[in-house]
Amino acid sequence: MQAYIFPGQGAQYTGMGKDLYEKSRQAKELFEKANKILGFNITDIMFGGTAEELKQTKVTQPAIFLHSVLLARTLGSFNPGMVAGHSLGEFSALTVSGALSFGDGLLLVSKRAAAMQKACEAKPSAMAAIIGLDDKIVEEVCAADDDTVVAANYNCPGQLVISGSVEGIERVCTILTGKGARRAVKLPVSGAFHSPFMEPAGNELEAAINSVVIKKPACPVYQNVTAGAVTDPGKIRINLTAQLTAPVQWTRTITNMINDGATSFIEIGPGNVLQGLVKKINRNVEVSGIDKAL
């Protein structure tokens, strides 16, 4: 069974989606619709902006969503048995599976980005990737720190991203390096995503999520918070609301999809980060990606 997966923040690149805009009338119409919904020409920044302009959270998140969803929409062969998305990518997965409409999905992503940016500016915070240590050791060191430092992304065995205060992240990284981590790398993000630092953003986003229609998706969606297959609109809404402050259970998500019959994973959207993570979780499944118009 084919499983489709959708990337999150950090996968963006200058020029993303331009070929799609030029080759597909359907994609062009949806890009123009997106410009109107967002109130600015995101296509100008995606196709010709600088890396710095594209890195702004209010641009990055809708840009990745658009690239992923429009690629899926223009694939003649798109017939997923199951879908999942990493963090922001979950909104792409819900939209391509029919749980969210295109307009509602884009609006939620835009509101999510704005709320996250505001939360980051209100209280400085950071994230770091811990490479080469057992999850349990990382969790124990985070729990023992005086500040709020938590596990944020369980990306694959031996790669756990942590979120917290700037000072707390510095301290925990030093301790984990001393305990044998191969690397402890601070990430170029504006704040501590998937942590209590995002609670103000979560409250804003909850109101927006509660205002949109969520339908039963055409296939199971494996959500970040539970790592399990969900088709019930009520449960999708609850999990989506919890996602901003809860960790991304990506390792468990991919493992559960394989256990439920996924034999190949196709990443749709910019970059190839998720393909690498899937290979590290299970080497026996086929992995490929689509990030250009076919």
Describe the strand arrangement of the main beta sheet, using strand numbers.
Answer: 8-7-2-1-9-10
Q: What is the typical, i.e. mean, pLDDT?
A: 95
CATH superfamily of the largest domain: Malonyl-Coenzyme A Acyl Carrier Protein, domain 2
Radius of gyration: 18 Å
Q: What share of residues is helical?
A: 40-55%
Strand content: 15-25%
CATH topology of the largest domain, by name, is Malonyl-Coenzyme A Acyl Carrier Protein, domain 2
Low-pLDDT parts are: none
- The CATH architecture of the largest domain would be 3-Layer(aba) Sandwich
Kindly give the count of domains.
Answer: 2
User: Termini separation (Å)?
Assistant: 22 Å
Major sheet characteristics? 6 strands, mixed
Structural class of the helices, strands and pairings? Answer: alpha/beta
Number of strands: 10
- CATH hierarchy class name of the largest domain: Alpha Beta
Number of contiguous helices: 13
Shape: globular
